[in-house]
Design a protein that fits this description.
Helix content is about 35%, strand content about 20%. It is α/β, with parallel strands linked by helices. It has two domains: about 1-245 and about 455-470, Glycogen Phosphorylase B (Rossmann fold); about 265-450, Glycogen Phosphorylase B (Rossmann fold), CATH 3.40.50. Strand 3 (about 55-65) and strand 4 (about 65-75) form a beta hairpin. The radius of gyration is 23 Å and the shape is globular. The two termini are about 15 Å apart. The structure holds adenosine-5'-diphosphate and alpha-D-glucopyranose (GLC). The site of alpha-D-glucopyranose has 13 residues, from helix 1.
C-alpha cells in the first residue's frame, strides 16, 4: 500500500508540538510493516533546512484569488528518518521560519493543499491512501471528491486525523473564491455555522476520521468547540487510535542528548547523573525531588495554573520545580518573576529547546501535566520511557495512558484542572519519593511500559485496508 501523509509539521523538519512527533514517526513504523509511507509538508526557511539538501522533483502553479503562486516540490535528499519526505516550496508564502501565526495563514494553508493536489494530479502513480492531519489539510477530502480539477484523484481513500479540535481554521465566505471550481450543490459540506470550517469539512468528507486517543473521541461528543453534533452524527466513521512514540528516537539507552545514557538496570545512576546536571544548570537542590513541566504555555495545558501551583507547593514542601515552555506572555512573565522569590528551588527556561526537553525527561523525578484539554499527550509517554513518574489530570489521552498508583497503577491522577488538585497530587508524590524503595520500583516498572508506534501503526494499516476493500 502507498500512503501519503499531508501535514504542516513533521519532526525533525519542523516541530511546534506533538503533531510533528506523530507525523515524524508513524510513517517510519508503517514502512517497517512493508508499506510505502511518505510525508509532504511545507518547506520552511528554518535551522533544519540549513543543514539539509533538497532536490526539485516537480513544480506548477496555484491560484489563490487573484494571485498566482509558483510552487516547487522539493524532496529531502538522503533522509535518515526511514521514509521519504517531500516539501512544498512557495517563495514568500511558505518559506518562513515560524510554522504558524502569520497574518496570511488562510492563504498559506490553502496554497499548500492546492499545491499538493496539483502535484498529485500530474503524477503517473498516485497514493492508495491520503492521510490528512488537522485543519490545515481538512479541505483536501472535499476537494478530491467535489472539485472539478481533481476528478482524476477522486477514488483515492482519504483519512482525516484530528489532533486538536480546538483549532478549526475558520475561513470567512468572502474568501470562497480562493477555492477551485467545485460542485456548488455540495457547498454545505464546507460550511459550519456560516463559515468555511476546514476541520468540520475534513470530518464530513474523509472516508474515515480518527482522533489521537479513544477517550478524546468520547470527550468530543460532549465538547468539541461547537462541533459536538457533527461528531455525534458522523460517529460511525470515527474511531480513536492512541498515538505511539518513536522508541528509537526516545530511548534513554541511546539518546545522544542525555548527559548519561541508562537502561532498566542502570536507571538509578543514569537518572541521578542527568538530575545532577539539571540541578547545577538551573541552581536546584539535587537532594530534593524534581517536578518538571514541558509544554506550550497555554490554557489547554493548564499553564496559567503553574504560577500558583509553584507558590503553593514551594511554600509547603521541600521540592524543586523546573519549567520549560513558551506561549502566553502573561504566564511567561509570572513564571520569570517567581525565580527570584524561590531561588534555589525553582527555575524556568522560556523558549523552545528540544535538547533540554530530553534532559528534563531523563533527569526529573516527576512530570506535571495539569492539562485542561489533552487529545493524546506525548510527554507522559516520553516521561514513562525515561523512568519519570507522570502527574496528570484525567483528560483525553492522559486518561488512556496513566493509571493512578492507588488503583494499582504508576502515576498520580486528579480530576479537576485546579491548583488544589495538582498540589494534592504533588503531596502524594512527595510521600512516594520518601519511600525510596517503592519509588525506584515504580520507576523501573514504568520504563518497561510499551508505548511504541508498532501496534497503532498496525491499527492504521488495518483501517486503510478495510477502506480499500470498500472502494
Ligand atoms: P502538544 O502537541 O499539544 O503541544 P504533545 O504532548 O502532543 O502536546 O507534544 C508536545 C511535544 O512538544 C513533545 O515532544 C514535547 O517534548 C515538545 N515540547 C513542548 N514544548 C517544548 C519546549 N518548550 N521545548 C522543547 N520541546 C517542547
Ligand atoms: C495535539 C494535541 C496533543 C497530541 C498531539 C499529537 O497537539 O494537543 O495532545 O498529543 O496533537 O497527536
Amino acid at each position: 500500500m502507498h500512503i501519503l501523509h499531508i501535514s504542516f509539521e513533521c519532526y525533525p523538519i519542523a516541530k511546534v508540538g506533538g503533531l510533528a512527533d506523530v507525523v515524524g514517526a508513524l510513517p517510519k513504523y508503517q514502512q517497517k510493516l512493508d508499506h510505502k509511507s511518505s510525508v509532504i509538508l511545507p518547506y520552511y526557511e528554518n535551522k533544519f533546512r540549513q543543514s539539509a539538501e533538497f532536490k526539485e522533483i516537480g513544480n506548477g502553479n496555484v491560484q489563490i484569488g487573484d494571485t498566482t503562486y509558483q510552487f516547487s516540490i522539493l524532496q529531502l535528499d538522503k533522509p535518515d528518518v526511514g521514509f521519504d519526505i517531500y516539501t512544498v516550496y512557495i517563495e514568500g508564502l511558505l518559506d518562513r521560519e515560524e510554522v504558524y501565526n502569520h497574518f496570511d495563514d488562510t492563504e498559506r494553508f490553502l496554497a499548500f493543499q492546492l499545491s499538493v493536489l496539483n502535484w498529485l494530479n500530474v503524477q503517473e502513480e498516485v497514493p492508495d491512501i491520503i492521510h490528512c492531519h488537522d485543519h490545515h489539510t481538512g479541505l483536501i477530502p472535499f476537494l478530491i471528491s467535489h472539485a472539478s480539477p481533481y476528478t482524476r484523484l477522486k477514488d483515492i481513500v482519504t483519512i482525516f486525523t484530528i489532533h486538536n479540535a480546538q483549532y478549526q481554521g475558520h475561513i470567512s465566505y468572502d474568501k470562497l473564491h480562493y477555492l477551485p471550481d467545485f460542485d456548488k450543490s455540495k457547498i454545505g459540506l464546507i460550511d459550519w455555522d456560516n463559515q468555511i470550517n476546514p476541520l468540520a469539512t475534513g470530518i464530513k468528507c474523509a472516508w474515515q476520521v480518527t482522533t489521537v486517543s479513544p477517550n478524546y473521541m468520547q470527550e468530543l461528543q460532549k465538547n468539541a468547540n461547537g462541533l459536538e453534533s457533527l461528531l455525534s452524527h458522523e460517529q460511525k466513521k470515527c474511531i480513536g487510535v492512541l498515538n505511539g512514540i518513536d522508541v528509537e528516537t526516545w530511548d534513554p539507552d541511546s539518546d545522544s542528548m542525555l548527559i548519561k545514557n541508562y537502561t532498566e538496570t542502570s536507571y538509578i545512576s543514569g537518572k541521578k547523573e542527568n538530575k545532577k546536571w539539571l540541578c547545577e544548570e538551573f541552581d536546584l537542590n539535587p537532594d530534593l525531588p524534581l517536578f518538571s513541566f514541558i509544554g506550550r504555555l497555554v490554557g489547554e495545558k493548564g499553564a496559567d495554573l503553574l504560577p500558583e501551583i509553584i507558590g503553593e507547593t514551594l511554600d509547603r514542601y521541600e521540592v524543586n520545580i523546573l519549567i520549560l515552555g513558551s506561549g502566553d506572555p502573561r504566564v511567561e512573565h509570572e513564571l520569570e518573576i517567581l525565580k527570584e522569590k524561590y531561588k534555589g528551588k525553582y527555575n524556568t527556561y522560556i523558549g523552545y529547546n528540544e535538547e533540554l526537553s530530553h534532559k528534563i525527561y531523563a533527569g526529573s523525578d516527576f512530570l506535571l501535566m495539569p492539562s485542561r484539554v489533552e487529545p493524546c499527550g506525548l510527554n507522559q509517554m516520553y516521561a514513562l520511557r525515561y523512568g519519570t513518574i507522570p502527574i496528570v489530570r484525567r483528560t483525553g489521552g492522559l486518561k488512556d495512558t496513566v493509571i493512578d498508583i492507588g488503583d494499582n497503577g504508576f502515576g498520580f491522577c486528579h480530576d479537576n484542572a485546579m491548583v488544589w488538585d495538582v498540589c494534592y497530587s504533588i503531596k502524594r508524590a512527595t510521600d512516594l519519593y520518601d519511600d525510596q524503595k517503592r519509588f525506584k520500583g515504580i520507576q523501573k516498572q514504568i520504563m518497561k511500559i510499551d508505548h511504541s508506534w508498532a501496534s497503532s501503526a498496525k491499527q492504521y494499516i488495518n483501517i486503510y485496508s478495510t477502506l480499500i476493500t470498500q472502494k
